[in-house]
């Protein structure tokens, strides 16, 4: 988990629909990680992540150090702030 000061939260509703869809698609199909999104179809998994973003259970972050975007649980972000 990157240091909290290196992360910038990006409101997902400020991303274009295409950018958000691409980010979510990359997240749920990412190799080498255990995202927990392996049970449903790609569309189902993407919809589940979108619902989590809409509900505030997950957030989009930009890591200034690596210059990458990621989706993380909101709780993880809160813990990093402590």
Largest sheet: 3 strands, antiparallel
Number of helices: 3
Name the helix and strand elements from N-terminus to C-terminus, one letter apiece: EHHEEH
Which architecture does the CATH hierarchy give at level 2? Answer: Orthogonal Bundle
Major beta sheet, strand line-up: 1-2-3
Number of strand segments: 3
CATH class group: Mainly Alpha
Mean pLDDT: 85
Spatial shape:
globular
Q: Rg from C-alpha positions? A: 12 Å
Instruction: Indicate how many domains the architecture comprises.
Output: 1
What's the gist of this structure?
Belongs to the UPF0270 family. This protein is an alpha+beta fold and 82 residues long. Helices cover 41% and strands 20% of the residues.
Structure overview:
The chain has 82 residues and is α+β, with helices and mostly antiparallel strands. The chain has a single domain (4-81), classed as YehU-like (Arc Repressor Mutant, subunit A), CATH 1.10.10.610. It is built from 3 helices and 3 strands, in the order E-H-H-E-E-H. The protein has helices spanning 17-29, 42-54, 74-81, and strands at 7-10, 58-63, 68-73. A 3-stranded antiparallel beta sheet has the order 1-2-3. A hairpin with a 4-residue loop joins strand 2 (58-63) and strand 3. Helix 1 (17-29) packs across helix 2. The longest helix has 13 residues, at 17-29. The radius of gyration is 12 Å and the shape is globular. The two termini are 14 Å apart. The model has no long low-confidence stretch (mean pLDDT 85).
């Amino acid at each position: 988990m990157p240091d909290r000061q290196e992360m910038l939260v990006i409101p997902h509703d400020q991303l274009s629909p295409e950018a958000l869809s691409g980010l979510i698609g990359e997240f749920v199909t990412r190799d080498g990680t255990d995202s927990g999104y392996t049970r449903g179809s790609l569309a189902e998994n993407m919809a589940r992540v979108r619902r989590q973003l809409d509900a505030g259970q997950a957030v989009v972050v930009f890591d200034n150090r690596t210059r990458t975007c990621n989706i993380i649980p909101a709780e993880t972000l809160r813990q990093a702030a402590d």
